[in-house]
Design a protein that fits this description.
Blueprint: H1 12-19, H2 26-33, H3 44-63, E1 65-68, E2 71-74, H4 79-100, E3 106-107, E4 110-111, H5 113-120, H6 124-136
Antiparallel strand pairs: 1-2, 3-4
Helix pairs in contact: 4-6
């Protein structure tokens, strides 16, 4: 779990509202505004909520890591891009498996897309989209 500092821009009216509350620190003032009372010594409720948010963020962060050519890209990608990368990796692993068994079906010296579909269960469009990239590797 990474520790991240978050800065939030708030309208001046909101900042003034927080600053007008009772309390020594801005945290106490914000807690007072939220109804937890100022100078609260037991922040366990807040810590539990923050920990829950951190756990959710870390789960989201882990699902967005995609392995592409032994590099981990940690960025937000669309669901379509995610599915395309997963299909590509599935095809490449199936082709590598067939290659290791020397079982790649050929037609006129090239891999047969139809026979690869039957052998791997991956649709022809996906195979034809990525086959040249795999052959160049």
């Amino acid at each position: 779990m990474k520790t991240v500092q978050c800065t939030v821009r708030l309208p001046s009216e909101v900042v003034d509202l927080i600053d007008n509350q009772l309390g020594k620190t801005r945290t106490d003032k914000l807690l007072n505004l939220l109804g937890y009372g100022c100078n609260q010594n037991d922040y366990s409720v807040i810590e539990k909520r923050i920990e829950a948010v951190e756990n959710r963020l870390s789960a989201l962060e882990n699902t967005k890591q995609v392995k592409v050519k032994d590099k981990k890209i940690n960025q937000n990608i669309s669901a379509n891009q995610q599915r395309a990368l997963e299909a590509r990796e599935k095809l490449f692993s199936a082709l590598d498996d067939l290659k290791s068994r020397d079982a790649i079906p050929l037609y006129r010296g090239k891999p047969s897309i139809t026979k690869l579909k039957e052998a791997t269960g991956i649709d022809r469009g996906t195979i034809s989209k990525y086959i040249n990239e795999w052959l160049e590797m």
